[in-house]
Amino acid sequence: MSACVPTRTPDSAHTPSANNPHAPPPGKRFRIAGADLSASVAVFLIALPLSLGIALATGAPLQAGLVAAAVGGILAGALGGSPLQVSGPAAGLTVVTADLIHRYGWRTTCAITVLAGLAQLGLGCLHVARTALAVSPAVVHGMLTGIGVTIAVAQLHIVLGSTPQSSVLDNLRALPAQLADLHPAALTISVLTLAILLLWPRIPGRVGRITRVMPAALISVAAATAFSALAGLRVDKVDLPSWRSHALAGLPEGPALGLVAAVLTITLVCSVQSLLGAVAVDKVVASQAELHPGVRRSDLDRELLGQGAANIVSGALGGLPVAGVAVRSMANIRAGAVSRNSTMLHGVWVVVAALLLVPVLELIPLAALAALVMVVGIQMVSLNHIRTITRHREIVVYAVTSLGVVFLGVLEGVALGVAVAVGVSLHRLARTRITHCEDAGVHHVRVRGQLTFLAVPRLSKALHQVPHGADAMVELDGSFMDHAAYESLQCWQDSHTAHGGSVEVTGRAGTRIAVPAGASGPRSRELVGASHSCCRPWAPWRNHHCDRPQEERQEGLEGRRPSGHQLASGISAFQRNTAPHVRGELARLAREGQQPAQLFLTCADSRVVTSMITSSGPGDLFVVRNVGNLVPLPGAESGDDSVGAAIEYAVDVLKVRSITVCGHSGCGAMQALLSTPPGGAQTPLKRWLRHGLPSLERMGAQDRAWARLAGRAPADAVEQLCLTNVVQQLEHLRAHESVARRLAEGDLELHGMYFHVGEAQSYLLTEGSGAEPLPEEVFDQVAPTAQAEVERTPSG
Fold first, then answer.
1. Model's pTM, two decimal places?
2. Is the pLDDT of residue 713 over 90?
3. What is residue 62's predicted lDDT score, i.e. its pLDDT?
4. What is the DSSP string of 370-422?
């Protein structure tokens, strides 16, 4: 993506090597940015207690967690393909590692880690990294959920002052006896740790913004340690033996088949978690391109090589398996890291702590670390992911994978999940419902599902129920049609029209159905609509790019001056491809006049294409665009009544039934509001942005809950202001006389919408009760397959 590519400079002496796109410029290799230094400290403060806690949860020597954190930070950070991803011991590997230690012992587990690293190196050399992304998200999230449940149940016993068993079922059976025999000291430490973990991020106001600089994990463990020491509680504490007695990897001992399965399991879990983490980091960086201008997209094959090298060294030195860790990676990005130096530095700080802070670390109660890891396990069960998977009808895959991981093991659970996912996909592909009915003299043939060769006999039977010479409509509700089905439909259509009949082929909601690449001719265009050959079928709005010669497009990519004929080329493409299909509808609108159902007020940003994100056509929306999607208050000093005039015209003359205010991510107007100091020359832009100052004041108000995005807090201040601005402009709308009157009459609705450009995801505003802990405004994600599932609460 262009947003992630550094600007090319004419001076080749400052250009990173083509063979190593993430390498720093020559002559600056050892310079460390201040942002990287501060980010490394923030990540270190999170990684230190988590590394000890994960080592405790696996039953490995506690030093093994520190070794993995140091090696993951330094080696994976230096060699990996994702500059801002932080690697180390991961909670997703806890169950696997604990099982291996229980079966084969610690030294053999280290050898298995080394072999898994070698396997990752082999996979990286074969360039198969992207194959891991083909795994269904339901399987991945089901695996993480199963691991999280297993971790939480096991650590609950340590929280209560006892020792966990080897399996989930054994831990559940032992829980009643454990509850009857509580250890007050360990329970006190655990409750204190849990309370701080839960409450620290929720401290309100300015104090909360200051305190959240320190991670909750560090504060909770430090507070529990201090309380234990001051109160003189007798609890088990961290025991770090001398590094001289630290156990290194040994020769693997055990049945060959079991060792091979263990290596495959570690390789699979480490690789999938690291690669998915790198993709997630890319998404976050792309959405914050202005904050990370020099960070390029991850090289997944190189990331796999870096993870393999880190696992080889970590295992050889007696450390836990290493993988990319989402929590630490997101903390690294939020702290402002600009290069891989922050990841490497955090590993250096872990080494320093492991060598110089042993007396301090040995004061930490084990119950505090267990409580910390238990919360991490619970957080791996994401309700947001469950809602998304349910909307995509993959809950069966998710449930089977989760239960398989909990009761059978990680490799067995993932294998079951993949098998069920394949079965569900085959079922969807083969299950096609075809019906025929007659309505007012028109014969309707409706196809629900994917149209493949398996459905051709039923399709042919339904089509031949249409009498010769009759009017017919074929409604295709699916996203794919193979060549056999296409040929069958086209042959029947040719025959039917030759006998005097008429045929109209449509999608249920105006969707377009993909056809085989070789299909051509007028009939294929009736199925998919007109689109240029190199853009078919998903992006007819980009036809003007396709009509440019290849050399011109290449020049545009390299930043040179385009030919200047792009506008004329786009008009020509419209006249040739699109106009024949919309001419009848536009002629009707020209006769009847416009009758839009809603006023759509959005930003002038070129990336927000209103017709695309709302699936609307000519005559559907009355669109008003301005910088920042602002609605000036009536009577406000602006010198521009164009927005108020458009609102009055839409409400009083066009009689629209709803008004939508749509903000978007990365809004330049909101960035300007946050960064431009008051005063100075009052340019037209500054005078216009005055109408956004109430949004800025609303965001800073202490008595208002911040808007949330699909259950999560906004990523940064710009996103928070973009969301708040939508809510504030809806209030400005209610102040307009015509809007207030229609709202009182009950025949007008106001909606808030937010479009995340980088994710191509729309969100609709729903207003909560305002009572804690629910936020006042929540932007809910719109499901891609069923937009009607999102409840849109009328305002007013």
1. 0.54
2. no
3. 86
4. HHHHHHHHHHTS-HHHHHHHHHTT-HHHHHHHHHHHHHT-HHHHHHHHHHHHH
